[in-house]
Amino acid sequence: MSETILQLQGIYKNFGSVEAAKNISINVSKELFALLGPSGSGKTTMLRIIAGLETPDKGRVLINGRDVTNLPPYKRGIGMVFQDFLLFPHKTVKENIVFPLKMQGKDESTKEEQYQWVSQLVHLEGLDERFPYQLSGGQKQRVALARGLVSRPSVLLLDEPLANLDRELRKEMEIEIRRFQLELGIPFIYVTHNQEEALTMSDRMAIMRLGQLEQIGDKFELYHHPQTSFVASFLGSTNAMQGEIKAVDNGCIVVDWDGVSLRAPYKDDFKIGMTVDYFLKSEKITIHPPGQKPDDHGRTVIEGRLRDTIFKGQYADYLISLKNDNEIIVSDVPTISPALRNATVSISWPSEAPDVFPADGGLA
Ligand SMILES: Nc1ncnc2c1ncn2[C@@H]1O[C@H](COP(=O)(O)OP(=O)(O)OP(=O)(O)O)[C@@H](O)[C@H]1O
Ligand SMILES: [Mg+2]
């Protein structure tokens, strides 16, 4: 991995009794780093601390090795893009974009040169003299991006920049923003509470909860090897079950989930009688056509009723009703005819597929 550009070291921030940041330490290099978490988990607070709009109670912010904790925002070399764009309604596109340069007292030729550079980068040619109300949502978002980038910052912070765009436009802008990051070669810190967006766009990501970092790392690592119940339930399309460990058998625990037996690998902190959270991503489950029952060696195999099939093209979501009145969602290649509604089918998954933790009430 390349060198660290931005460092957060032991950041704390309280608002009255609310702990908005609690011992946050992150190193970010020239990458797209996603900060993901539910509403109120402290994502915006973290960006505001990096930008200098908020002072931490404790801890330091370093950019390229330099301590900027006590520098005002305009001396930090940081660009920011917000969810609601925050464009000045009575300024033109061009005036909006060069505003940060004006605040920095840059001369006309510098303003012109950087404006030309950035308006080409984000494809805003020809819109210079328009006012915000004459722009589409996507164009407004590009103006906000251009304004964040115009002073060639060493870090760009983006706070839910696509939340106000419709799905099609969001997909397009996700790819564009990734392209800008690669072209500019600076760290982008991208805040979102949309897990799909974070998984699509980022190199690495951190999951925040109640002002703390739950887990930080490569996105594949977080997706496939969550370390807490919260992360396991937050990422992906996940079936959440809870049950009691009844037995240990052949390196596996056997969990009783309302009368259905589930298998998972044994871990040191497991004990018979313990209540565990058992998370299973829907795509890790296989559905078997009626009459076919897989070998249960090293697998959990359950019978159920195929209540509905939601065809999605490349795959389908199968809703399976179980004898314990619970339901499991299976995402698999759509090989089973929708006409088989209410047929009895088997579903199965390898023992290693689930993520299991002692129950701690940490469900998302
Ligand atoms: N200036 C402030 N004064 C008091 N409380 C604040 C202030 N700013 C943030 N908070 C509180 O700190 C916590 C974290 O807020 P923050 O805005 O960082 O959350 P967030 O993760 O960005 O949420 P969202 O996804 O809704 O934008 C919340 O409980 C919030 O109410
Ligand atoms: Mg926020």
Q: What is the assigned CATH homologous superfamily of the largest domain? A: P-loop containing nucleotide triphosphate hydrolases
Rg calc:
25 Å
Number of helices: 8
N to C succession of SSEs:
EEEHEEEHHHEHEHEEHHEEEEEEEEEE
Q: Roughly what is the average pLDDT, rounded to an integer?
A: 92
Share of β-strand residues: 35-45%
Strand order of the largest sheet: 6-7-8-3-9-10
- Oligomeric state of this protein: single chain
Poorly predicted ranges: none
The strand count comes to 20
Give the tally of structural domains.
Answer: 2
Topology (SSEs and partners):
Elements (H helix, E strand, L loop, with lengths): L5 E10 L2 E11 L3 E5 L6 H9 L6 E6 L2 E2 L10 E4 L11 H11 L4 H14 L15 H13 L5 E5 L7 H18 L3 E5 L2 H7 L2 E6 L2 E7 H6 L4 H6 L3 E12 L2 E6 L2 E6 L9 E7 L4 E3 L10 E13 L4 E6 L5 E6 L11 E7 L4 E4 L6
Parallel strand pairs: 3-8, 3-9, 6-7, 7-8
Antiparallel strand pairs: 1-2, 1-4, 4-5, 9-10, 11-12, 11-14, 12-13, 14-20, 15-19, 16-17, 16-19, 17-18
The site of adenosine-5'-triphosphate has 12 residues, from strand 2 and helix 1.
Describe this structure in words.
This protein has a six-stranded mixed sheet, sandwiched between helices. A five-stranded antiparallel sheet has the order 13-12-11-14-20. Strands 15-19-16-17-18 form a five-stranded antiparallel sheet, with no helix packed on it. It has 364 residues and is of the alpha+beta class. The protein folds into two domains: 6-232, Rossmann fold (3-Layer(aba) Sandwich), CATH 3.40.50.300; 233-358, RNA polymerase II/Efflux pump adaptor protein, barrel-sandwich hybrid domain (OB fold (Dihydrolipoamide Acetyltransferase, E2P)), CATH 2.40.50.100. It is elongated and about 75 Å long. The chain has helices at 43-51, 93-103, 108-121, 137-149, 167-184, 195-201, 219-224, 229-234, and strands spanning 6-15, 18-28, 32-36, 58-63, 66-67, 78-81, 155-159, 188-192, 204-209, 212-218, 238-249, 252-257, 260-265, 275-281, 286-288, 299-311, 316-321, 327-332, 344-350, 355-358. A hairpin with a 5-residue loop joins strand 17 (316-321) and strand 18 (327-332). The chain contains eight helices and 20 strands. The longest helix has 18 residues, at 167-184. Magnesium ion binds next to helix 1.
